[in-house]
Amino acid sequence: MPKWVAILPVYNEESHIRNLIPVLQKWVSEDMAERAVVCVDDGSTDKTREILERAGLRVISSDPLRHRNLGKAQAFAAGAKFADKVDAKIVVSLDADILDPTAEKITSLAREIERSKFNMLVATQLEPTVVRFPGSAPKMEYQVIGTPYTGPRAIKMSALTPLLNRNPKWISLFKGFAIEVALEHLIPNKSRSQVSFYTDKGFRKGRRKQNRQIRTAIRKIEQRDGLCSKLREFRKTNRAFAKNYLAEMKKKHHHMR
Fold first, then answer.
1. Domain 4-205: what homologous superfamily?
2. Tens digits of pLDDT across the chain (257 residues)
3. How far is CA 230 from CA 115, 125, 225, 257, in A?
4. What are the domain boundaries of the chain?
């Protein structure tokens, strides 16, 4: 049974999935007894699934009956269920459009969490960047690129037990938010961290796509906070109404006596 499972949610990725296929094939071939890849088709309408299956990769559906596009979080959940069935210990969540993916980076991320005390590690990059200061020559420095809402991540299966047991809070967040946002809320701060890799090319999405995802994540968090505030206000109003109603009923009962 594989110890590590790489989960790749896909939705209409035929334009760039071919870049990742040889990386996944190489990663599994390095230790076929300990590693597995599961691609989760989230209702693709192009040739994504056909391309992956032709390459010999395992493909499952996030919605086997109706083949709907349920979102990346639901696709990840389907991949986590597969990992649980094969008794995996660690999952690595990937994106089909990562820049310059390598088998070595996937392995490094899995090994790092295996020996760490954390339940989730998010990959960030130390990439070479030209830094310019007034009055001095430009110089090359490594700077952190990536955020908790964008990078590939490794997660211990033990941390996903509530999801596998269909905990209502987990299920609600997985249905309503992106996977990155949901996991950042559900896995406590003390149980997650970031790990940075020195690299000349990014093990991440393009910056424009990263920025768009960050804005979406922030908007989702703000929406959630707004809904929670409204719910608290509704509960407060409801309790006040119930209290007044009971008081009126007691008065009526007293007068009837």
1. Spore Coat Polysaccharide Biosynthesis Protein SpsA; Chain A (3.90.550.10)
2. 889 999 999 999 998 898 899 999 999 999 999 999 999 999 999 999 999 999 999 999 999 999 999 998 999 999 999 999 999 999 999 988 776 788 998 999 999 999 999 999 988 776 656 666 677 776 666 555 555 556 689 999 999 999 999 999 899 888 866 788 888 889 988 898 887 765 555 444 555 655 565 566 566 656 666 656 666 776 777 777 667 767 776 666 555 55
3. 43, 39, 9, 41
4. 4-205
